[in-house]
From TrEMBL:
Histidine kinase domain: residues covered: 226-438
Source domain of life: Bacteria
Database matches in Pfam families: HATPase_c (PF02518), HisKA (PF00512)
EC number: 2.7.13.3
Name of protein: histidine kinase
Organism annotation: Pontibacter populi
InterPro entries listed in its UniProt record: BphY/WalK/GraS-like, HATPase_C_sf, HATPase_dom, His_kinase_dom, HisK_dim/P_dom, HisK_dim/P_sf, Sig_transdc_His_kin-like_C
GO terms of molecular function: kinase activity
Enzyme class: transferase
Amino acid sequence: MRLQSKLTLFSAVSKIVVVLLLIAVLPPLIHRVALVNTDKRLNEKKDSVLEIISNQGIGNFVAEGSEGAYGSYNLLKEEFISIEQIPEPIVVDTVENSLRKVENEIVEYRVLSLTFEVDGSYYLLEIGRSIDTIQESIETMQQYALYFLAAVILITVFIDLAFNKILLQPLIVIVRRLKKIGHPSTFTPKTINTTTSDFLYLNNAINDMMGQVQDAFQKEKEFIGNVSHELLTPISILQNRMENLLTDPEMPEHLLVKLVDNQKTLHRLKNIIQALLLISRIENEQYLKNEEVSLAALVNEVKDEIADRAEAKEVTLKIDLEDDWTLQQANYSLLFTMLFNVVSNAIKYNKPNGSITISGAPKGKSYELCITDTGVGIPQEHLPHIFNRFKRLQGPDNESHGLGLPIVQTVAHFHKVKLTVVSTVNVGTTFCFRFGKV
């Protein structure tokens, strides 16, 4: 998971945890707030009633000197006010829940009770608000509180997502630059526009590291060039000397046989050095890819070049290509070497009167070229190692497979060609190359 997604997910989860805690705390909190507001409202009405009595007298509610009472309920019985004259003074000043019978219906109220004196007479004032009405207010408050919390969560998540994207933009730039590096030589150190010291440190560390890698590759190029030159020169000298000895008429026959064997050994050593040098130069991108290559023309040239060898081994070479495919940026000679090595191995390890088929067909936005032989095949346990240049695998004739296949893989990777191999012992082997987008 991407760092930006992790930060956003963590932020969202933490907010959800906070909301769950608030949801657990909200009901009792809102219930308490509703009761406090109700009590405050009841006290305000009490003050209003007492002010009216103070200004206009108790007669507006209860006739003075009588033992009557005053009661008033609103239409839905949500609130009531009652004033009742009492014979004896009782000190009452409370707010509590109480059941009242209203028109043959029992209703629970939050009731403020207060006794007061007017002209020597004592009265009991009660102001109530129904519990059902309070509960409706509580539920409404809870509902809107939840809506508000949900809105806050969504808004903050989007804000965090945008902020994280802005905050991590320098890291995204660094990652994109690293993904574009096809080879160390193509890397160019750049500064990064950010005020975050961690990202500045990371970018500088990558620049320094890539600088060291580029120096190491440059030294490797120089070393390979010098070593190959130093090795090939004495080998060429030895070959020339042996050729001169072979033309000497006085050379004994038994020594001529040994000289021919030595000549073969030097030739094999020279081929190994040249193969390793070729692989190294390809991996160091010392070859250009500036040619348009037609796969049909390439396959036909490989066939013409190797036809004599196939005929000598009594192997039939077939070509079955659907349409043609042109590579826009490629190196013709390297691709020729890649296909030539595969076909050469297919001839070398084929059966008498066997066949090799080079087939090709478009596959969506790509083109697949396969080379199938009817040879001895490759054991399954050897397939993962056939491209390893440092692991020697013996063929049926006890000869090493050499560096031909490592060169094939190196050229394929250089051209971003997907290479797959399928083989069955005593049935044959198929090498497939997928050109273009896979």
